[in-house]
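Student: Send me a single protein entry containing the residue sequence and its fold in token form, directly below this note:

Tutor:
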Amino acid sequence: MVTLALDRVSVTLGRRAVLHDVSTAFAPGTLTAIVGPNGAGKSTLVRALLGLVPASGSVQVDGVEAAAMSRAERARRIAYVPQGQLLHWPLTVERLVGLGRLPHLAPMSRIGAADLAAIERAMARADVLHLRDRVATELSGGERARAMFARALAVEAAALIADEPLASLDPGHQIDVMDLLRAEAAAGGTVIAVLHDLAMAARYCDRLLLIDTGRILADGPAGHVLTAERLRAVYGIDARIENGGPWPTITALGRVRPLA
């Protein structure tokens, strides 16, 4: 189990301030959705956690400054599913998933029996066993997304960060991915997902972190975060929110229209 924390973290990319003094923490056993409109800073926040962008402030992994950790140690502790799913090499799916074991391997060492077992488990959980011999660059967008997800699962890290993991997936596989994220958290993992689908976030996630213009606007369960007033202010939409079921149901009704 691992706890991730940001303390007054700011990120400037080029001349644009993208995150502003963000402080928050992510605990084991919790599935957190980071939500907000395009350009809000969601992906930058998780990239700051991973050390992929220069940031001021403090990023900690179990109370240890992440900057003091080696890249391999951080990679063993935090698995990452990036958005975009770009592939440049014609690897088979099995070999692609096997890249998830690299943080565990010493230089020039070979994959062993424990690594092969982890790869097999990851492919089974991501439903890509039947694709193991296919060339990953020849897969459909949805198949490729699941293969990349399997690569992250193969790390078997205590924390998992997924940036827009539902993109390119059909509704059935979207549910499969959210079930997997939910299961990771239930098993004690620290799980963070950047999501655009508010309905999925409300249904599956213990906690929603709503950000806009690089600042945290609301933090808590879906019923607290997703209010009609906030959706109007942040997303510029009118929405109907029903709280009578096991999770809030959100229906977007249309764009907010300025008064004539």
The two ends are 54 Å apart (CA to CA). The longest strand covers residues 16-26. The mean pLDDT is 91.
